[in-house]
Amino acid sequence: MAFAWKRSITDENRRGAIEVSGSGKNPGQGTPLGRKTRAMGLSPFFGGLPGELIESLASLGLSQTHGPGQTIFGQGDKALGFYMVASGQAKVYLLEPNGKERVLHLCGPGDVFGAAAVFNPGGYPASAEAVKQTETILLPSQGLKDLMARNPDFSLALFAAMAQKLIELKKMIEGGEKRPLPRLAGFIMGLPAGANAPVKLPATKAKLALHLGMTAESLSRALSRLKAAGLIEEGKAGLRVIDPARLAKIASGEASL
What we know:
Elements: H1 11-15, H2 32-41, H3 51-60, E1 62-66, E2 71-73, E3 81-87, E4 90-95, E5 101-107, E6 112-113, E7 127-130, E8 134-140, H4 141-150, H5 152-176, H6 180-189, H7 205-212, H8 216-228, E9 232-235, E10 238-241, H9 244-252
Antiparallel strand pairs: 1-8, 2-7, 3-6, 3-8, 4-5, 4-7, 9-10
């Protein structure tokens, strides 16, 4: 879930915590405010904003640490604000009536979640949980609203980002109606990878299966079929797309295996 306004976060940063190297003058590099400012500046969500505005946002932010499996917020909880992952990984999910967990988003360093709830008096529409040891920055609702009132450009950017979230969610729901093979192909096509570069899966295969709305066995079979057809390779460095044109046709349903 990346909203690349003007900058994009590197794959290296996405694999772990957002790097805090750099030579910012103000605030101090070793201060909590300095670390939050640099982390937010490297996020695709905030990276295109002016430095002064990023610093203002960072000054509002509250750093939090969550252990593996710890709930960050529950569905229906009063919205305290929205969160950015500084390190680790969080999942946003719904519990279906049958008790099955439906993962909506897997959020890594630089990703933001819970933004829509800032304007929803009904609270958070889904739950969020740390997948592993995770650090987040909470941006409180009232402080954000005050900042938006003073900065129309930030308001427009925030609404544009939330609109993009809705588009991604719609695509995911539509993808859930497809069979496992095109669903997986579409997911792989959407992963951030350079030309001929391998890309790491953003979660374990078990969690990825949940995210895609399929069983772990269905995911393994779909991966095996894509590899056997010569469309992808899988190695220690991650997945590499060999035939993007054909994989795209599998994803869209124009072709089959």
